[in-house]
Amino acid sequence: MDRGEQTTGTRDEQFNLVSVLYHALQEADTLEVYIFDAETSGDERLAAFFRETQAMHVQAADRAKELLGIPETPAAGGVPPDAISGGIPPEEVPPGDVAGGISPGDISGGIPPEPGDTPPGGGSHVG
């Protein structure tokens, strides 16, 4: 086995970058609790320190993503529109198609509804 690979076939550099990314994001998330605690206790000096530390971890995570070739994502809470539609921009999803290519028949296991059946919630079948 090449010394530059893990037993999984992943190069050490990739593994190391993923590890840094994971731990930086984990720490940034943990620091959110510390910031809240400091603000709750009224210690703005400590809260500012935790915010600065959190920003450093976010910056390290962003750099690791860049080195891994992971595209930049929207700000917290944002979801790119094409993530919901399975990678298809919303304006290109054909009418009647469900995002991601799932149809109601897929959800029901491919069993067509019986005539007159009403789905949960009282709606009517589209077909």
Give descriptors for this structure.
49% helix; single chain; 0% strand; 4 helices; mainly alpha; 127 residues
Report on the structure:
This protein is mostly helical and 127 residues long. It has a domain of 57 residues. 49% of the residues lie in helices and 0% in strands. Helix 1 packs antiparallel against helix 2. It is flat, with a radius of gyration of 23 Å. About 10% of the residues have low confidence.
Please sum up the structure shown.
The chain contains 4 helices and no strands. It has helices spanning 12-40, 44-68, 81-84, 104-107. It starts with 11 loop residues before the first helix and ends in a 20-residue tail after the last helix.
Question: What is the element layout, followed by pairings?
Answer:
Layout: H1 12-40, H2 44-68, H3 81-84, H4 104-107
Which strand-content bin applies to the residues? under 5%
Distance between the termini: 56 Å
Largest sheet: none
Mean pLDDT: 74
Region (Disordered): 71-127
